[in-house]
From TrEMBL, chain A:
Signal peptide: none annotated. Transmembrane segments: none annotated. Residues 59-243 form the Pyruvate phosphate dikinase AMP/ATP-binding domain. InterPro entries: ATP_grasp_subdomain_1, PEP-util_enz_mobile_dom, PEP_util_AS, Phosphohistidine_dom_sf, PPDK_AMP/ATP-bd, Pyruvate_phosphate_dikinase. This is Pyruvate phosphate dikinase. It comes from the Bacteria. Keywords: Pyruvate. Residues 377-446 form the PEP-utilising enzyme mobile domain.
């Protein structure tokens, strides 16, 4: 095998390089390999190469271009397939992966290496021409969307263009906005992980899914996930198809389900945190595509930190590290009961303008809204935008929603002044159809949920068992003020850490 | 006179009493009272518990009156005012957000130095806004109240009444600014909702 420069590295169990250099995705793959988890072979183009790509005005550095063929040869060797041609064609996924996860913000190209020859070979080797055509169609559509041109016929040229486009997606508007909102470093860059494809759409014993080792919304200890038979990765994440519950996988393929559960438990134990795992089943064979610490709701963050500490997976100190003052504040604020929230349908979502949780009936006409609110009804006023003549009604209603406008719009400014929960910018055409519907607005989350949902309002940290545990642990720490509140104690810890 | 009265009733969204309408519409008090009386009699404005509210017929009449007014105006000059004013709209909204929120949390106004900096930013903007209001009033005399109202809001804000920057139920800087913006939308024949939809 040819020597591979440091900018392009095959992922192996004992790879050196830190998370900042490899990106979260490659880092996760490498950790899984080290744990003996079945992961399709892959290589990474590092964040260091991304920095040079950006500095070079979006041109792929020469050493990266030179190293790609050898890295692909490595995948061919491990899989016994050949890149872009038969008899068993190798197709790869090209994915972003920053050190700090930015889910859905950057670009991905799947099925790369698809050529007319590969399509013919794939149809022949699988005996499934429809599947081969379907894969080719997905590839062309996604490549055009991400790279902006039709895919070249030469697979090596496809790869260079896709790696370059994924690097460039670090500077896309949505990625910039995401980082700005969260205060993330614009210069960190993304790595690109290139991985052999496995096919969730191959046959009836194939499919794809996501698994959370515990429920990320409620913090319930049961695994929670979705399974899409005959689907491929982005179908679940993009929400374009209706996936099934994991119980369906247990019914259809019990051995695969059992293996998945065992691997999930291993990963959670080894990573010492709740994991969000992407997996694919190809003709009855389980492959794990990635794992990462699961994003979670404030309620789940508190419950999970306490649960993991009580199980001995993490210490009390680490449990406190994993809960932010803002998350505690969110749990202490009146909030929708988590199970009801998880089950409720989201009717609209926008940007939070003034926080608060409130239920009421949606009214779109300002004057009607005011009359009904004056008569004592809980009214949620929904408008395309608001203007001065809406102000009296805005002061009378329980919540305000707008289709247009951002955090500085008239509705946002006025609602904050009035202290009325408000969500702005839900999108044209999203609200007027809700007239007459009973909804619950969670303005801090920017969501409008169907129905009147139960609201929990803890009187203080002592009123909620998990917060009480955290409070006791925080007060027991050396130097802690025994009279301080939990958010204050956590803020003080943040400062000294 | 009807136009000024209808617009005053509309902008206050049903909250205006007779004295507010008289004050906003400006001009001769007796004339305002006569106009208000005839609009109520014709069903274009509804009076309830001493407060006035625009009815659908009044809304149509207002639209027609604005179009008629526009026919006699220097629309190019007015468009220019609208454009410059709209550019300041965003600046003001950002200042107002910083007044209401600090690092995403509500500003509890305990830090006088912070608030003073925000007020300085309003004052820096005010010079331009005031000139634009004066230009608007030169083109449309019934808008002549606006420069003084803006000035007055600033005076009260400087005097320590914090409501006069953003509070929607008093004649705050934001209230006056936004009503003037709305007047400019109407006078130039623009629709705010569709403008916002196209500009995002």
């Amino acid at each position: 095998m040819t020597t591979i420069t440091t900018a392009v590295r095959p992922l192996v169990p004992d790879l050196d390089g830190d998370r900042a250099l490899l990106g979260g995705k490659a880092w996760g793959i490498q950790r899984m390999l080290a744990l003996g988890v079945p992961v399709p072979p892959a290589f990474v183009v590092t964040t260091e190469a991304c920095a040079r790509h950006r500095a070079g005005g979006g041109r792929l550095p020469a050493d990266v271009r030179a190293a790609l063929p050898a890295a692909i040869a490595h995948l061919e060797e491990v899989t016994g397939r050949t890149f872009g041609r038969g008899p068993a064609p190798l197709l790869v996924s090209v994915r972003s992966g920053a050190a700090v996860s930015m889910p859905g913000m950057m670009d991905t190209v799947l099925n790369l290496g698809m050529t007319p020859r590969a399509q013919v070979a794939l149809a022949a080797s699988t005996g499934n021409a429809r599947f081969a055509a379907d894969t080719a169609r997905r590839f062309t559509r996604q490549f055009e969307a991400v790279v902006g041109v039709a895919p070249p016929t030469e697979p090596a040229a496809q790869l260079e263009a896709a790696v370059s486009a994924v690097f460039a997606s670090w500077d896309s508007r949505r990625a910039l906005a995401y980082r700005r909102e969260r205060g993330l470093d614009d210069n960190a860059g993304t790595a690109v992980t290139v991985q052999a494809m496995v096919f969730g759409n191959l046959d009836d014993a194939s499919g794809t899914g996501v698994l959370f080792t515990r429920d990320p919304l409620t913090g319930d200890p049961e695994p929670f996930g979705e399974w899409l038979p005959r689907g491929q990765g982005e179908d679940v994440v993009a929400g374009t198809h209706d996936p099934l519950r994991l119980a369906e996988l247990a019914r259809a393929q019990p051995a695969v389900h059992a293996e998945l559960m065992a691997l999930a438990a291993t990963l959670e134990r080894e990573c010492r945190d709740v994991q969000d795992i992407e997996f694919t089943v190809e003709s009855g064979r389980l492959w794990l595509l990635q794992t990462r610490a699961a994003k979670r709701s404030p309620v789940a963050a508190v419950r999970l930190a306490v649960a993991l500490a009580e199980e001995g997976l993490i210490g009390e100190r680490e449990a406190l590290d994993r809960v932010s003052p803002a998350q505690v504040a969110a749990v202490l604020r009146p909030h929708i009961e988590p199970h009801a929230r998880a089950a409720a349908r989201v009717l609209a979502s926008g940007r939070p303008a003034c926080p608060g949780v409130v239920s009421g009936v949606v009214v779109c006409d300002t004057e009607v809204a005011q009359d009904r609110a004056d008569a004592g009804e809980a009214v949620v006023l929904a408008r395309p935008t608001t203007d001065p003549e809406d102000v009296p009604a805005m002061s009378a209603v329980a919540a305000i929603l707008t289709e247009l406008g951002g955090a500085t719009s008239h509705a946002a400014v006025v609602s904050r002044e009035l202290g009325v929960p408000c969500v702005v910018g839900c999108g044209t055409g999203t609200l007027m159809g809700l007239a007459g519907t009973e909804v619950t607005v969670d303005a801090a989350a920017g969501e409008v949920l169907e129905g009147v949902l139960p609201v929990v309002a803890p009187a203080g940290a002592g009123d909620e068992p998990d917060l009480a545990r955290l409070l006791a642990w925080a007060r027991a720490e050396p130097g802690a003020d025994p009279a301080a509140s939990l958010p204050d104690l956590l803020t003080a810890r943040d400062r000294t850490r | 006179m009807d136009l000024a009265v209808l617009q005053a009733v509309r902008l206050k969204g049903g909250l205006a009493d007779a004295s507010t309408v008289i004050w906003l519409a400006g001009g001769d008090e007796a004339a305002v009272r006569r106009s208000l009386g005839s609009l109520v009699a014709a069903g274009q404005v509804q009076e309830r518990r001493g407060r006035y509210r625009l009815m659908p017929g009044g809304r149509d009449m207002l639209r027609a009156a604005l179009a008629a007014e526009r026919a006699g105006l220097d629309v190019t000059a007015l468009d220019l005012v609208w454009e410059e004013f709209s550019a300041h709209d965003h600046t003001l909204k950002v200042i107002l957000r910083d007044w209401q929120l600090r690092d995403g949390e509500p500003n509890d106004h305990s830090d006088e130095a912070y608030d003073a900096v925000v007020i300085t930013r309003v004052e820096a903007l005010h010079g331009d806004v005031s000139r634009l209001a004066t230009r608007a009033a030169a083109i449309i005399p019934r808008l002549s109240r606006y420069p003084g109202r803006l000035e007055m809001a600033l005076v009260r804000l400087r005097g320590g009444d914090r409501r006069f920057l953003t509070h929607p139920m008093v004649d705050s800087y934001h209230t006056v600014f936004h009503e003037l913006h709305e007047e400019l939308y109407g006078a130039t024949g623009r629709d705010r909702a569709s403008e916002e939809a196209t500009t995002g």
